[in-house]
């Protein structure tokens, strides 16, 4: 009799725990922020800055396009009163007000931009270029240098080879909105000869300098060039230039090829 009552009580408690668990799961799912599909539909179209009537961006589907040819399109979502834009990074912007023909938001510097939906179809020409322009010199560069040190004749040969390796750099545009630009990286070939004998020959990639350049800068940089500097008892000295495109930020890494053909690097 007692065993039967204990079994009934245990079964009852187990049932309560199961229902409680199911209830919590359902509540958690209900609390997940949902995308505002109505707000997304209202944002479709071309928007211009209310203040100067300059084209700001175009929204089509899940993507925001910019009128300039260097900024990459960005995916977006609207959740609550926040606009989420995802390029190289995910950035959020507070929505101040939205109607079918008006949209205002606060940018990353705290300024409020007011946009109006354009009704002039000729503005579409601003978005005719479907592919963003990739920024880079995009050209093969060859150079060679002949120098003499203590009766030994050195011949250095350098070649900058453009690649299709993409490097993304995030910047704030003139409206204080983060956009991503894309660049092509380079591979640089370096060969050194001494009296006609090959001392050293190798291709250099940006990743070869990861122990010399901070990761935060290296990620948005390209290997721009390797240039001859001097020759002395240590060997032939070169400067590898790793820099952020369209920015003064760069690193010089000295590459030294010894008379025995060994290669070492050090930060300038």
Secondary-structure map:
Layout: H1 2-30, H2 37-43, E1 45-49, E2 55-60, E3 63-65, E4 74-79, E5 82-86, E6 90-99, E7 102-106, E8 112-117, E9 141-149, E10 152-172, E11 178-194, E12 197-204, H3 215-218, E13 222-232, E14 235-243, E15 250-257, E16 263-267
Antiparallel strand pairs: 1-2, 1-8, 2-3, 3-4, 4-5, 5-6, 6-7, 7-8, 9-10, 10-11, 11-12, 13-14, 14-15, 15-16
Your description of this structure?
This protein is mainly beta. The chain has helices at residues 2-30, 37-43, 215-218; strands at residues 45-49, 55-60, 63-65, 74-79, 82-86, 90-99, 102-106, 112-117, 141-149, 152-172, 178-194, 197-204, 222-232, 235-243, 250-257, 263-267. It contains three helices and 16 strands. The strands form three sheets. An eight-stranded antiparallel barrel has the order 1-2-3-4-5-6-7-8. The protein has a four-stranded antiparallel beta sheet with strand order 9-10-11-12, with no helix packed on it. A four-stranded antiparallel beta sheet has the order 13-14-15-16, with no helix packed on it. Strand 10 (152-172) and strand 11 form a beta hairpin. The protein is elongated and about 80 Å long. Residues 19-29 have low confidence and may be disordered.
């Amino acid at each position: 009799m007692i065993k039967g009552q204990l079994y009934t009580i245990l079964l009852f408690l187990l049932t309560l725990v199961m229902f409680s668990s199911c209830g919590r799961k359902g509540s958690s799912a209900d609390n997940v922020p949902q995308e505002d599909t109505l707000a997304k539909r209202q944002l479709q179209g071309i928007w211009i800055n209310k203040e100067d009537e300059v084209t700001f961006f175009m929204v089509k589907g899940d993507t925001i396009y910019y009128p300039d040819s260097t900024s990459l399109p960005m995916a977006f979502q609207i959740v609550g009163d926040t606009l989420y834009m995802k390029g190289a990074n995910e950035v959020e912007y507070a929505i101040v007000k939205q109607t079918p023909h008006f949209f205002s938001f606060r940018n990353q510097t705290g300024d409020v931009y007011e946009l109006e939906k354009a009704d002039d179809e000729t503005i579409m020409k601003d978005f005719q270029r479907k592919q963003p322009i990739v920024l880079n010199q995009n050209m093969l560069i060859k150079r060679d240098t002949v120098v003499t040190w203590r009766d030994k004749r050195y011949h250095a040969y350098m070649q900058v080879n453009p690649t299709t390796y993409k490097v993304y750099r995030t910047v704030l545009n003139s409206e204080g909105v983060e956009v991503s630009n894309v660049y092509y990286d380079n591979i640089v070939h370096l060969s050194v000869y001494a009296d006609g004998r090959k001392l050293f020959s190798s291709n250099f990639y940006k990743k070869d300098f990861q122990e010399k350049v901070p990761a935060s800068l290296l990620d948005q940089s390209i290997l721009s060039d390797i240039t001859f500097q001097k020759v002395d008892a240590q060997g032939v000295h070169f400067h590898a230039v790793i820099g952020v495109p369209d920015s003064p930020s760069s690193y010089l890494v000295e590459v030294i090829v010894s008379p025995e053909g060994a290669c070492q690097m050090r930060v300038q």
